[in-house]
């Protein structure tokens, strides 16, 4: 019997509905191709446009639907001209509540160069880029959101929050991810990225990382200051495997990494915890191109692939893991053939890219699909 997974779908704002619709089309195509699982989508509304109309960006009933779903697929939320009374964007009302209240403590941001995608780096450097930034998602500087202090319009302060429990969890996630990514030509490696030479909070982060690393003797553990890492991810990014870092540093390095592999249109992401997972592109809502049919859907499609793999690992469903891998390989094939949107140097419209990915999925070989319940897949840490 097919196992059914309920997906909470939030389109959001700007190009969000376009790219979410694209990802859903691909996910439904791979579902048909496999025939071993069923994805049941529940379309929900949250974001800046909803806030503009109602004064609420994430209604309680929408949050509860997300909390009860097997996974959340999100397009993009926020608009530059829709802001809260304190001047911040509405996006945080959605993203921070979902991350913090669902304890999505690990932000997984893959940075991978696909053959055929543009890069500002030399070809011999860009071709080896394949690493993952694991961002601690519910602590760090962003934990101060809403709690900072502005004194008489002259002094402003925010506080970095680092806990042992939170740091242990995200570091274990990084080490387990490195083990899953292990391949014969590259031993697993986790690099702690911090600013421990200046701030005690980051020295504590590094200390906890070292404590966790002792439980993983087969994984190389090393360290880098965040300013040096921003240099090395440009000069020699092919050396890295998994990076684990504080919330804000992970946010910044993710965008830097995306720039080296073609831009935000190729930057998927997963925000996951022990029970819940949210999958979305790392890019914003791009309201200037919304509705023009040129939005790059690949980051959202790749986020959908991550969703399938996460669900498969969580539920021991090998067919989902292979389906996610099939989507990723289909995207790589489409990029290699040059069917890409203008941001990647192509002329294809959004729908053309979606059709090409679906065709690649349908042309793929899925004979090794494992029926649900056959095991062989370890759960996510």
Please compute the radius of gyration using only Cα atoms: 20 Å
Instruction: List low-confidence stretches.
Output: 366-381
The secondary structure category is alpha/beta
Q: Indicate the mean pLDDT.
A: 93
Whole-number total of structural domains: 2
CATH class of the largest domain reads Alpha Beta
Strand content: 15-25%
Measured between the Cα atoms of the first and last residue, the distance is 27 Å
CATH homologous superfamily annotation of the largest domain: Isopropylmalate Dehydrogenase
What order do the helices and strands follow?
A: EHEHHEHEHEEEHEHEHEHEEHHH
Overall strand count: 12
CATH topology of the largest domain: Isopropylmalate Dehydrogenase
Strand order of the largest sheet: 2-1-3-12-11-4-5-10-8-9
Helix content range of the residues, please? Answer: 40-55%
| Architecture per CATH nomenclature, i.e. the level-2 architecture of the largest domain | 3-Layer(aba) Sandwich
Shape category: globular
Q: Number of helical runs?
A: 12
- Largest sheet composition: 10 strands, mixed
Which helices and strands appear, and what pairs or packs with what?
Layout: E1 3-12, H1 16-34, E2 37-44, H2 48-54, H3 60-68, E3 71-76, H4 91-101, E4 106-112, H5 123-126, E5 130-136, E6 149-151, E7 155-157, H6 164-180, E8 189-194, H7 200-213, E9 220-225, H8 226-235, E10 242-245, H9 247-260, E11 268-272, E12 277-281, H10 298-315, H11 318-337, H12 350-363
Parallel strand pairs: 1-2, 1-3, 3-12, 5-10, 8-9, 8-10
Antiparallel strand pairs: 4-5, 4-11, 6-7, 11-12
Helix pairs in contact: 1-10, 1-11, 1-12, 6-7, 8-9, 10-11, 11-12
């Amino acid at each position: 019997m097919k196992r059914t997974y309920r997906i909470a779908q939030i389109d959001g704002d700007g190009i969000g509905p376009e790219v979410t619709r694209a990802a859903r089309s691909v996910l439904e195509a791979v579902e048909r191709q496999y025939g071993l699982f069923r994805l049941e989508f529940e379309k929900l509304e949250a974001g800046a446009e909803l806030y503009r109309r109602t004064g609420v960006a994430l209604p309680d009933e929408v949050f509860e639907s997300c909390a009860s779903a097997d996974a959340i697929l999100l397009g993009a939320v926020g608009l530059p001209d829709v802001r809260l009374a304190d001047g911040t964007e509405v996006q945080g009302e959605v993203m921070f509540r979902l991350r913090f209240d669902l304890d999505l403590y690990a932000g997984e941001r893959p940075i991978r160069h696909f053959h055929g995608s543009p890069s500002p780096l030399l070809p011999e450097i860009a071709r080896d880029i394949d690493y993952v930034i694991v961002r601690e998602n519910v602590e760090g500087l962003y934990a101060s959101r809403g709690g900072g202090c502005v004194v008489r319009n002259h002094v402003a302060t925010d506080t970095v929050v680092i806990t042992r429990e939170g740091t242990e969890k995200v570091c274990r996630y990084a080490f387990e991810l490195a083990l899953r990514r292990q391949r014969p030509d590259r031993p697993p490696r986790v690099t702690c990225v911090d600013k421990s030479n200046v701030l005690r909070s980051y020295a504590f982060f590094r200390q906890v990382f070292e404590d966790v690393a002792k439980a993983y003797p087969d994984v190389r553990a090393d360290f880098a200051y965040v300013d040096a890492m921003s240099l090395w991810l440009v000069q020699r990014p092919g050396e890295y495997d998994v990076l684990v870092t504080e919330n804000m540093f992970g946010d910044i390095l993710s965008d830097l990494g995306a720039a080296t592999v073609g831009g935000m249109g190729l930057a998927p992401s997963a925000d996951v915890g022990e029970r819940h997972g949210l999958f979305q592109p790392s890019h914003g809502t791009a309201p200037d191109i919304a509705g023009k049919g040129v939005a790059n859907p690949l980051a959202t499609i790749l986020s959908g692939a991550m969703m399938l793999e996460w669900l498969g690992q969580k539920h021991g469903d090998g067919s989902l893991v292979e389906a996610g891998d099939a989507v990723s390989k289909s995207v790589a094939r489409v990029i290699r053939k040059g069917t890409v949107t203008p941001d990647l140097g192509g002329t294809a419209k959004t729908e053309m890219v979606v059709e090409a990915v679906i065709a690649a999925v349908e042309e793929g070989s899925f004979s090794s699909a494992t029926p649900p319940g056959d095991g062989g897949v370890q759960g996510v840490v």
